[in-house]
Design goal:
With 283 residues, the chain is an alpha/beta fold. It folds into 2 domains: 2-175, HUPs (Rossmann fold), CATH 3.40.50; 188-277, Pantoate--beta-alanine Ligase, Chain: A,domain 2. The chain has helices spanning 7-19, 35-47, 75-84, 95-98, 118-122, 126-141, 153-165, 195-200, 203-216, 222-236; strands spanning 2-4, 24-29, 50-55, 89-91, 145-149, 171-175, 239-247, 260-269, 272-281. A 6-stranded parallel β-sheet has the order 1-4-3-2-5-6, sandwiched between helices. The protein has a 3-stranded antiparallel β-sheet with strand order 7-8-9. Helix 9 (203-216) packs antiparallel against helix 10. Bound molecules: pantoate (PAF).
Length: 283
């Protein structure tokens, strides 16, 4: 695996592939790779000839009181995991390389409306940071295809919207959530959980499954389902941030008769914010 740290080196490394009409696949990450990330790489390999994984803990998507400084950085272990998958190129730039003028002085990409709800409401500015860095990575690599996890469901929807609005010539693939054996969605932040919190954490998924089951049985009183589940999460020891049943495509509250729904939730265990979601196809 070739490891490059500069935009110039990455573009030079990609040039021969581009000249040979090879398809470029991109997997953007912030490192601390788990099975979920590795699945993104495996999927990218099915759709492209050369795979670029990026590893950059992007400061512009973290709020002032968030975990930028403590975000787990495990570079060598990440490299080993990517090597084992025969990843072609790892792009691991410094912050100065990505934001030579500083994050605040860099042009940014803003996707309106769908960034105001859910994680966007509780993390102001977060999605501007995500869409800015992701569009920079799209422009730098000129990748044909990029793969993102469905765990960050809103992030994926925002990126799809950006690509559509700005006519960016790239295909976006969403990869289903990879879960631990007990149902907890894999996340780099799971490592923050204490032993006791880790035992409790899968209950978030359980609560979403209960809603899924109720909707599948025909319950379409979405407001009551949301309220009951939010109360249940609090009783279990979570501090719910949000729990909503939304239309899957536009991230608007689900209405009776909607067929493709997504149950989305974020909840704190101590200071760790967990997110999860579950699709529901109503027949
Ligand atoms: O999902 C992530 O890890 C990040 O938000 C991303 C897409 C790599 C952008 O920094």
């Amino acid at each position: 695996m070739l490891i490059v740290n500069t935009v110039k080196a990455l573009q030079e490394a990609l040039q021969p592939y581009r000249s040979a009409n090879k398809k470029i696949g991109l997997v953007p990450t912030m490192g601390n790779l788990h099975q979920g990330h590795l699945q993104l790489v495996k999927t990218a390999k099915q759709h492209a000839d050369v795979i670029v994984v990026t590893l950059f803990v992007n400061p512009t998507q973290f709020g002032a009181n968030e975990d930028l400084d403590s975000y787990p950085r495990t570079f060598q272990v990440d490299c080993d995991k990517l090597e084992a998958l025969s990843t072609d190129i790892l792009f691991a730039p410094t912050t100065d390389e990505m934001y030579p003028r500083g994050g605040d002085n860099t042009s940014h990409v803003h996707v309106p409306n769908i960034t105001n709800v859910l994680c966007g409401a509780s993390r102001p500015g977060h999605f501007d940071g995500v869409t800015t860095i992701v569009s920079k990575l799209f422009n730098i690599t000129r990748a044909d295809v990029a793969v993102f996890g469905e765990k960050d469901y809103q992030q994926l929807a925002v990126i799809r919207r950006m690509v559509e609005d700005l006519n960016i010539p790239i295909s976006i693939i969403g990869e289903p959530i990879v879960r631990e054996a007990d149902g907890l969605a894999m996340s780099s932040r799971n490592g923050y959980l204490s032993k006791e919190q880790r035992v409790l954490a899968p209950q978030l998924h359980e609560v979403l499954r209960d809603i899924h089951q109720s909707i599948s049985k025909g319950d379409d009183d979405f407001k009551t389902l949301q309220n009951t589940a939010t109360t249940e999460l609090s009783k279990l020891g979570f501090k719910p941030d949000y729990l909503h049943i939304y239309h899957r495509d536009n991230l608007r509250p689900a209405k009776k008769g909607d067929k493709e729904l997504v149950i989305v939730a974020a909840a704190y265990l101590g200071s760790t914010r967990l997110i999860d979601n579950l699709h529901v196809h109503c027949t």
